[in-house]
Amino acid sequence: MMMSVALPVVLPLLFGALSVMFWRSHFAQRSLGVLGTGAMLAVSVWLLADTWEHGHVVMEMGSWPAPFGIVLVSDMLAAIMVVLTGIIGFATALYSLSGIGKMSEKFGYYPLLHLLLAGVNGAFLTGDIFNLYVWFEVMLVASFALLILGGERAQMEGAIKYVTLNLLSSMIFLTAIGLTYGLTGTLNMADIADKLATVEDTGLITVIAMLYLVAFGVKAAAFPFFFWLPASYHTPKVAVSALFAGLLTKVGVYALYRVFTLIFNQDVDYTHEILLWVAAATMLTGVLGAAAHYEFRRILSFHIISQIGYMIMGLALFTPLALVGGVFYIMHHIIVKANLFLISGITFVMKGTHELKQMGGIYRTNPMLGVLFLIPALSLAGLPPLSGFFAKFIIIRAGIEAEAYWVVAVALVVGLLTLYSMIKIWAEVFWKAQPEGVETDDVTSGPMIWMWIPVIMLALMTVAIGLYGEPIYQMALMSAEQLLDPSQYIEAVLGESRP
Amino acid sequence: MEVVMAFVVGGLYAAAIYMMLRRSIVKLVIGLVLLSNAANLLIFTVAGMTSGAPPLIAPGDTVPEGISADPLAQAVVLTAIVIGFGVLAFAVVLIHRAYEVVQADDMDQMKDTDR
Questions:
Q1: Residues A418, A329: contact at Cβ < 8 Å?
Q2: CA-wise closest residue to A329 among A235, A224, A275, A257
Q3: CB 3.0 to 4.6 Å from A176: which of A42, A211, A220, A308, for a disulfide?
Q4: With bands split at pLDDT 50, 70 and 90, how would you rate the model's confidence at A199?
């Protein structure tokens, strides 16, 4: 039995159920939150080690053989994503100890957190396309509830847009699943890939591929579908924002990586050309949106969009190096982006606002926080020797080798503009003097210790990936090799049962 | 039969998109309901509409006798209906709360977060 692949899904569900049982006890819920996410991180590292050793780890649920039952499959990409989920989940749980507030805890913050993490891990690990839909819905329902914890007007308005567009994309996804089933008669992803190779009607396959592109494009906040993200991500509690920013859109990106390497690799010239245009437009619109805004979390939200573009660019170029870059980018981005959101929470406690115009002078009172902000901010912009430099470097090098010069040009310009808006935040929040006539309550001590620890932890990881990126690169390399050779995945899942 | 169902499904999708493009949030939710029903009917149709026997396998056999209905598509539709219903319940509560907070059933009044 390959238990390691089931535990990252089972554990959060278990701890979620436990925290429902201790509904009234804040202390028990908090401890379960930290314990549960910590345990999840531990088993996800175990899964990564297992996957590193065996290549693919497969578990047939209920021992039903592969194309008939539901399988959980972990390849290198899935294992990496699960570890990142563990890291962000653990960091958020620690941060929530002092950052979330009693009211949110009372309305079930911790059970929802566990449920969200279970959904995210399930989506990464499942090998069945309809099961992927189910995990998407688990994740979405938990995220809906987390988004409106607090019940302010902005949250309601943001939630309506978030809920509507995400449900629309779920229904498009379901439509695509129905058509795939009609075409192949199976829901197992490896089996679909196997059967589609024999289907003559490539036009129909391309249509279905585009349906998947739209469905996952909405979830990933790619170019024409991103409007729900900047409308909603700056409204919930900061811990929730950080969790969403780190994980949710990346589930969409992961799903794009999965279906456009495993299943839809028949007509690469056509489908991946579209992906390349989407990537370029996503990068550019995201960063231009960020340049126009002066609210801390809205700027960061727009930057999520522009960074998604880099990840899709890695997939769209579809060369080994580009996929290495894409996977590396995802790893770097999740850590950095969640960290920036967590920092915005600390500055919010200090200044009581997210508006850049009303903040200032934090570097004078708290130079440590300034440094902690600069590490992820400069990493996001891609300055050496931080993690973002290597991520961007690999992708841009892959772009030059694939002779897609225009998209490389876009990527470089976007990098520069990213630096501009990070410097804008730095100058407004940390460097300039506190504007006169704005009241602030400078709280810097007390129970905030739990907000600092995850920030420091994630910043150290960013530096570590930058200074010692070789193991990360090796992992990305292995996942790229697996992605480019889907026969390994099919072989691992279907094994001898294949005719 | 498949042709008729194709038109029904297409009509449902069209109606759903039309409703979602209205300004009223109640009509928006009605659009979501129609959309999930359309997707469910699509799966049902696409899996093939055979009036076959239940897919039960007699003891000793490995395949069912004669033509039998496809159980997987029905399981998928059933799951999708349940999920759709749960999500819909959330959406209805959400628009109720949003109506209480914003005091309007109009998407044009909900533009604060886009500025």
A1: no
A2: A257
A3: A211
A4: confident
pLDDT digits 0-9 by tens, B59-114: 888 887 777 888 888 899 999 999 999 999 999 999 999 888 888 888 888 877 77
Query: Which CATH architecture describes the domain B2-49+70-109?
Result: Orthogonal Bundle (1.10)
Which pLDDT does position A499 carry in this prediction? 46
123-152 of A, contacting B, C-beta below 8 A: 130, 133-134, 137, 140-141, 144-145, 148, 151-152
Interchain CB contact of B81 with A (< 8 Å):
no
* Residues forming a β-bridge with B68: B53
Supply the DSSP string of A181-229, one letter for each residue. HHHHS--BHHHHHHHHTT-S-HHHHHHHHHHHHHHHHHHHT-GGG-THH
Q: Do B110 and A160 touch (CB under 8 A)?
A: yes
Contacting residues of B for A133, CB less than 8 Å apart: 80
B39–A141 CB contact, under 8 Å: no
Inform me whether the C-beta atom of residue B112 falls under 8 Å from chain A C-beta atoms.
Answer: yes
Tokens linked to B34 = 């129609």
pTM: 0.94
Give the Cα separation of A234 and A201 in Å (integer): 45
Nearest CA in chain B to A168: B32
Question: Tens digit of pLDDT for each residue in A122-140?
Answer: 999 999 999 999 999 999 9
DSSP string covering A257-323, please? HHIIIII--SSHHHHHHHHHHHHHHHHHHHHHHHHT--BHHHHHHHHHHHHHHHHHHHHHH-SHHHH
Q: How far is A191 from chain B (nearest CA, A)?
A: 15
A214 interface with B at CB cutoff 8 Å: no
ipTM score here? 0.94
Contacts of A369 (CB under 8 A, 6+ apart): A343, A346, A347, A362, A363, A430
Q: What sign results for the dihedral spanned by CA atoms A324, A328, A331, A337?
A: negative
| A158 with B113: Cβ contact below 8 A | yes
Q: Please give the Cα distance from A5 to A1 (Å, whole number).
A: 10
Is A224 an 8 Å CB contact of chain B? no
Contact (CB<8Å) A130/B47: no
The secondary structure element, H or E, covering residue A59 is strand A57-60
| B112/A168 CB distance under 8 A | no
As a whole number of angstroms, the distance between CA A372 and CA A459 comes to 7
User: Does A158 contact chain B (CB < 8 Å)?
Assistant: yes
Residues whose CB is less than 8 angstroms from the CB of residue A438 and which lie 6 or more positions away in sequence, other chains included: A358
CA distances from B113 to A54, A234, B75, B79 (A): 48, 9, 40, 34
Minimal CA separation from B67 to chain A, in Å: 16
> What kind and span of H or E run contains A471?
helix A470-484
